[in-house]
Structures are given as C-alpha cells and as structure tokens.
Amino acid sequence: MIDLYTDATPNGLKVSIGLEEMGLQYNVHHVFLGGEQLTPEFTKLNPNNKIPVLVDDGLVVTESGAILIYLAEKTGKFLPKDPKARIKAIEMTIFQMASLGPMMGQLMVFRGPWQNKAPEVSNRYFKEVSRIFGVLNTRLEGKEYLAGSEYTIADIAMVPWVRAAALLPFTQDLPVSANANLKAWLDRVMARPAVQKGLTIPEPFPMEKQFEGFIKATVGLGDLHK
C-alpha cells in the first residue's frame, strides 16, 4: 500500500490528483505544516522537511514532480511512450516546478503572510506570474493539453497552481480569464472527476489553522526556522 504524507497545498494536491487519476490505493497522512514536518519521524522520510512524501513498499520518494514521474512509470499512465511526446510532458512538468510554482509561491508569501508590506517585491512576482500565464497560453495555442493532444502529468502538476490563482483572495487579480487558451484548459481539466476528487484530498484544515501553518513555515517570518 502507498502512504502519502501531504497537506492541502498545490504541491500536495498534485500528487493526490495523480493517485486518483491512476486509480491507485493509498493511505493519507495529513501533515500540519505548523511543525509536524519537523518531527524526527518526518525528517527521517525527508530531511528537507517538505511535503509531499510518498512511500511505496519501502521506497521513499520526495519532490512532487519526481513523485508524479515515478507514479506514471509505475502505472504506465499519463507519460507518453513516444520519446518526443514523453520529453514534452516532462518538459512542462519541470516548467511548473521551476517557474510557476516558485514564482506564484513567492507571490502568495509576500501578499499573504507578509500582507503586501513590500509592494515592489509583490509586484515583481505578480508580473512574473502574469508573464508565465501568458507563456502557458501560448503553449496551449491549438492544443488540448500542455504537452499536446494527450493529458499527462504536466497537466496534473499545473492545475492546482492555476486553480489557486482564482481561489485565493490575494491572487484573484492574476490574468487567468484574460488568457483564453489557459482558461479553456483549466475548465477542461477541472471537469475531470479524478481532478475534482484529488483536490479534496486531504481536506484543508480550518482556515485559521491552515493559514497559521503557512505563516509558521514561511522562512524569515514564521518561528519554525529560527
């Protein structure tokens, strides 16, 4: 049985979606990021003290993108066999991890826990995420999915992050609807039953507790990394 250590963050939710899409059975261990990721038990699984962590028959896999690639290879699903199509799916998965995730994560930090006290910094990340949305819009021109005509782990990796733009009060001005291809892609992917279910696993903690964990885990602001 697979064990998933996770929280209701975009990086955590992408793995839940992947597991649901691939029809795998798994146990969920909900980690409160206000400190549970620093316990000796969790640190043994991931010395980087980050979720998600997947344990499959004794194999520990960290980093959400690596987990998705592992699951795709394990099941033979959502990662094309054709080498050219395969590398495009991996390329766009890496793009999420290297570009959209870090930039939007910083926007969320500076507008959320830091309450936009450094507007010039927040604006830098807002402009960069907006630019990335434009890049995704261009990538989707004439395509159903991010890597082409086939739904892949690239779409699974990206959807919780793009969805979060419209979901969070401090990112709702990001230009999702203004990028027609991106908005159509989001609607298309969000209509999938496995995506809808995966986005509920795990259920977030009550809002105050979820935000408390976000603040405490924010390096330079919270008290977990002093």
Order of helices and strands: EHEHEEHHHHHHH
Strand elements, count: 4
Strand content: 5-15%
Fraction of residues in helices?
40-55%
Q: Give the CA-based shape.
A: globular
- Straight-line distance between termini: 37 Å
- Mean pLDDT level: 96
State the secondary-structure class.
alpha+beta
Helical segment count = 9
Spatial strand order of the main sheet: 2-1-3-4
Give the C-alpha Rg.
Answer: 17 Å
Low-pLDDT runs: none
Main pleated sheet: 4 strands, mixed
What does this 3D model show about the protein?
The chain has helices at about 10-20, 40-45, 65-75, 85-110, 120-140, 155-165, 180-190, 195-200, 205-215; strands spanning about 1-5, 25-30, 55, 60. With about 230 residues, it is an alpha+beta fold. Strand 1 (about 1-5), helix 1 (about 10-20) and strand 2 (about 25-30) form a beta-alpha-beta unit. The longest helix has 29 residues, at about 85-110. The mean pLDDT is about 95.
Quick structural overview:
By secondary structure, the chain is an alpha+beta fold. It has helices at residues 10-21, 40-45, 64-75, 83-111, 119-139, 153-167, 180-190, 193-198, 207-217, and strands at 2-6, 26-30, 53-56, 59-62. Strand 3 (53-56) and strand 4 form a beta hairpin.
Give keywords:
alpha+beta, four-stranded mixed beta sheet, 226 residues, 9 helices
Write the layout of secondary structure elements.
Layout: E1 2-6, H1 10-21, E2 26-30, H2 40-45, E3 53-56, E4 59-62, H3 64-75, H4 83-111, H5 119-139, H6 153-167, H7 180-190, H8 193-198, H9 207-217
Parallel strand pairs: 1-2
Antiparallel strand pairs: 1-3, 3-4
